[in-house]
Amino acid sequence: MKLIRVIFPLVLAFLLHAGVSIANTKHQRNGAGPEIFDGKTLKGWKTLGGNAPFKVEDGVIVGTTVLNSPNTFLVTENEYGDFVLELDIKLGAPVNSGIQTRSHYNPQLNKGKGAVYGRQVEIDPSDRKWSAGIYDESRRQWLYPLSLNTRAQNLYKSGEYNHVKIECIGNVTKTWLNGQPVAYLIDTIDQKGFIGLQVHSISKEEEAGKEIYFKNINIKTANLKPEPFPSDIFVVNMEPNSLSKQEKQSGWKLLFDGKSSNGWVGAYKDSFPPKGWVIEHGTLRVLSSTGAESTNGGDIVTRDKYKAFDLTFDFKLSPGANSGVKYFVTLTEKNAGSAIGLEYQVLDDKLHPDAKLGRDGNRTLSSLYDLITANKPERFLHPIGQWNSGRVVVYPDNRVEHYLNGAKVLEYVRGSKEFRDLVAISKYKSWNNFGEAPEGHILLQDHGNDVSFRSIKIRNLN
Prior knowledge:
The protein is mainly β.
């Protein structure tokens, strides 16, 4: 009996050890676990950017915040192209974190101190609630903020482990948080790079010494198949003048094919303007005529009319330029100058004098021109000469939203008392039922300045 008591624990220990070995072997065979993290050491990883320390405790990578350190990243020594990455992350305090994908290091950034740059899947415990959105670290900033998918904003669980899944296949990056779909991005750069775990910089003493936990870090790099995504989740497509399969299935259509004027005519005309507009290098460009409104090529409008819709467009301003994207344009007014309609203002706020006119900035970029001022954070504005993205959503119940580079900057209701009160004190007060037509054309404005458009897309919401 005594011999059995001695042998049984030894056999049990052997079987348990064998089970662990078999599990690890299976994990490795699936391209997960030991391929990227062995659960015991930081072999295959290195630290870049700052001086926050990382260590391994009980199969968990633990990063610790350091006062006044730059963003610190524990990154893989290997680079990855296509992959599906899954991991669990927990924040020991409400400090920001994230997961870098296909990222790089530039020693010249951060005033020569070096910095990591590339797409990051955000972990955001703040009231903003943008966890699993996509940010471009040290480069283009927000690519997919969760103002584009508000249903996903409450998926993050404070003080608990959150499961993150990231699928990078070709130009597509998709994210899930705690099993639910969040972001869908089609990008044109970075087909390969390292994966990184972030400890964010902190500047408050009470945030120092807080721990970030990463565990169950698994990656698959072979036999990848894209997982389906709900068709009603907005797609950010950075490939100019293109529609992905996902967008087509969601009902999106191109209003500009990048090559021709098909679908567009001059306002109050039967054909496209013979001068003043050019189509080149995949852009629809209105030429400068020293700032004179609609005196060169004139405004252009879609042949079709739209009721409820989701409209997106990229625009690039020259210094001091003015233009606009109008909607619910009826062309019934037969007025001189630009045709009448609700206007998403397109403007160089710093150099064009119109930005200082109107009331409280309601003639600035992305505002509802002369009616409602856009509330746009400075960080969401790309510099003049670079592409910005606009979006106008009109719902069947007459709710309207304006977006700039993914951030919602204003909302209102057509025909509401508040809307009519604003019209009554605007330049549109003399037009009966201004902005309340049941349908109308989309218009690109010729305000006499050099402005380019591309990737103009629309989806009916009727």
